[in-house]
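QA checklist item 7 of 12: single-chain prediction sanity check.
[x] sequence parsed
[x] length recorded as 557
[x] structure emitted
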Amino acid sequence: MEKILSVNETGDRLLHGDGRLQGTRLQDIAEPLCEESDQPVYASVVFGEYLLRCPTPELADLPEHCRMVVFREATNDACHDMLIGVLNQISEPVILCDAQCRIYLLNDAAVKMDSIVTQDVLGENITNVYRSRDGSELMVPEVIREKRPNINKRQYYTTRYGKNVDIVCNNFPIVQNGQVLGGFSVMEDWSAIDSLHKQIIDLQDKLVNRTSAGRHKTKSALSAKFTFEDIICISPAMSNVIAQCKRVAKNDSSVMIYGETGTGKEMFAQSIHNASNRADGPFLAINCAAIPENLLESLLFGTEKGAYTGAEHRPGLFEQANTGTLLLDEINSMNINLQSKLLRVLQDGIIRRVGGSSEIHVDVRVLSNINVPPSQAIAENKLRRDLFYRLGVVNISVPPLRNRREDIALLAKHFIMQCNKKLVRNVRNIDGATLERFQAYSWPGNVRELQHAIEHAMNVLPDEASMITPDYIPDLIASSSGAAGAEQAQTVPSASSLSGAIHDMERQTICKVLRETGGNISEAARILKISRQNLQYRIKRYKIDIAALLTGTIPQW
């Protein structure tokens, strides 16, 4: 049983001991101070006051079986953490800046709306992160300068990662004793409100049309749920793919989407449908790898009664998807003979049910997904070349997660917010060490593997923990740092190869910009148009010593 042998005057005051602490048990007074922790664990001795344990210095002359406990007053720390917890639970996006308009806080709702990695923008001037699309001044700098609120303002802005946002906001300065400490904005995503307005109008139309004679057009129940707004990214690679898909969505050309397993190919397919003129029509998807050939043919083209034992008069997916979109997932897994039967549908828009003799005209846009390069599938005789020309009028390539590492932190935060609702948790984020492991890992399972890693961590994370640490992520990822070093060594090849020349040029460009910015990571990332995390990853990857770079002693390779 441990008892207090001695306490200094400050410790007695913080513990409200009144000189009577000697011989009492610290566990009975402030139990959280008894054990050191990597995460803040507060002790509250009286209402409204909090204490926090500090790292214990090593003392050579400490008596045997004795230990020292060092702690400090931490009321402001605890109140700060509580307020952050409150802000992260409210549904309205909030951004807070200091008096110099440097971003101090983005709550979870703002992170979700703006698709921004908080660590990338903290401490940066708000005008370096957001730009008004109509040329007007951003609201937060205005209220800080004018020292008065600005309520119910509509604003259109673009983030530095290229996301366009439409909001209505209430903006307030923070003034204390005549001094402006900062300003904040409480926002509403107007695009979401606009979507609700459209839903109300659609419902009103349906109510009116119910009393009218004849058929009326309504949105199909077989609809796609994802839109381009649901694709979480800040990387130029993904932003370019999204921009390309938005252009493609406007017409009816067939689209083939290539991407490794777990990259989100179906999200792109659904988004293309929802951004197209067929959005009110049905969206159907079928996985060609999961269904036997004879059954797949029946599902696609339909059957007539008596076509085979047990066959019924039933329309196929092409008929059901009429005026809409049909997605053929893993098209390279479809039997090569059945692929030939798709050609007529794609060319003439005509199908014939299995066991039937009549021709049926259908109006369907066909999208397809493939998880190997189309050229490889053709070479391996898994995809007919003529079918590829029909299905791949437009080819889209979704980059793997290892090629868009700047998105990892944002995706991790997004999945944490999802799991907080699903598992009824209150986890804030991943810590720096976990982010390093994530950045070093190769992610063969791509975004889906990252999502599962986050959900795994939040299932095994202790109830009181608020940050995901490497102790709770899957072992394969947690131990990836050593393997990553070898991988990175392999990804910096000699300049004699094309790949090596490209890496050499990239390294030289990064070094040049770092010299020009005096080693300022944020400014260099802005000039290079990549995130701070991505730049830091590449600095580590290319073993760039910034201090040596600035003094002109960096080694060349």
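[x] summary fact logged: The longest helix spans residues 190-210.
[ ] second reviewer sign-off
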